[in-house]
Design a protein that fits this description.
Layout: H1 5-20, H2 32-44, E1 48-59, E2 74-84, E3 87-95, E4 103-110, E5 115-119, E6 124-128, H3 153-159, E7 161-170, E8 173-181, E9 187-193, E10 199-206, E11 212-224, E12 227-240, E13 247-262, E14 280-283, E15 288-291
Parallel strand pairs: 6-14
Antiparallel strand pairs: 1-2, 1-13, 2-3, 3-4, 4-5, 5-6, 7-8, 8-9, 9-10, 10-11, 11-12, 12-13, 14-15
Helix pairs in contact: 2-3
Length: 295
């Protein structure tokens, strides 16, 4: 059978148009408002957290950073983290084999009024009147926030301008894709799967210059009815290559949760450090040092 060039072109055009037309996803069609309502509902289920987890972190030698972080290209963190509203407790053990002190530990707690810091190896402590914004990786970073740890992902998206919202696939999973411009000039892109409690399978955050600042992917598990939590994941921070000026991954963090209890009973004592006898403490409000137990 002979097919002339004209009919051949028509056949190819039909074939390619069939390939290029997006396949409608199998998820229910939602308006942006209905989508945000469901995201809000999921975020509202978590009242407090008691989580223990590990982080394996690898730093790129191509990024200019603080001299203390130049010691070794890897570190392992073992963390206990409690959170209830503004109150928190971190117990962090850091293992960096090539550091001057290979294994170190620091504890930080904020009870809503006072912040306590204790370094057991040095047996020193501090008392402050405000909370601190941590650089430590926490499970919130793995798909529960869009770059601002003080706000849920739903809050951030409500305050942003959504420029694109449709169904899409990420790694064979049917998701809702949302692209939003944040009020601070940044940007969020997220592939959110309703089958895992409206949590992101994959999330990217851009800075106000339009450059990617972080990305994460996580494996969520339903640890309580309707509550999905990241039990493992990969989080990448980006920086500038000091030699080429190229945007590259500055460090990669791999998280593994050992235990996660949500909406468990926590008390004020959980957010206060009791310094042991002999601890040298500096009270930053009264601007005076003292030794616990000394006259």
């Amino acid at each position: 059978m002979y097919i002339d060039a004209k009919h051949c072109c028509i056949a190819l055009a039909i074939l390619f148009s069939a390939i290029l037309v997006p396949i409608e996803g199998s998820l229910p069609k939602l308006s942006e408002e209905k989508f945000l309502d469901r995201l809000d509902h999921t975020d509202s289920l978590v009242l407090n957290m008691d989580v223990s987890y590990t982080i394996d972190e690898v730093f790129s030698p191509r990024i200019r950073r603080h001299p203390m972080l130049m010691i070794g290209s890897e570190r392992h963190l073992d963390v206990i983290w409690l959170k209830e509203g503004d109150k928190y407790f971190y117990d962090i053990r850091t293992n960096n084999p090539v550091a001057p002190v290979p294994v170190s530990r620091s504890i930080d707690a904020y009870n809503g009024e006072w912040r306590f810091q204790w370094y057991p190896r040095q047996n020193t402590g501090d008392i402050f009147a405000d909370r601190v914004r941590f650089a430590w990786p926490i499970p919130l970073d793995f798909g529960l926030v869009g770059g601002n740890r003080d706000k849920s992902l739903a809050q951030e998206l409500r305050e942003a301008e959504i420029v694109e919202f449709h169904q899409d696939r990420w790694s064979q999973h049917e998701c809702y894709f949302v692209d939003a411009n944040k009020s601070n000039g940044g940007r969020i892109q997220a592939w959110i799967d309703p089958n895992i409690g409206y949590r992101p399978r994959y999330l990217k955050v851009y800075n106000r210059s339009g450059n990617i600042s972080s990305e994460c992917s996580a494996v969520f598990e339903e640890i309580s009815e309707g509550i999905w939590f990241p039990m493992s994941g990969v989080y990448k921070l980006y920086g500038i290559d000091k030699e080429t000026g190229e945007r590259i991954v500055s460090n990669e963090r791999k998280m593994k949760v050992r235990k996660a209890k949500l909406n468990t009973n926590l008390t004020l004592q959980d957010f206060t450090i009791e310094f042991p006898l002999g601890t040298r403490v500096y009270d930053h409000m009264r601007r005076r040092p003292y030794v616990v137990g000394a006259p």
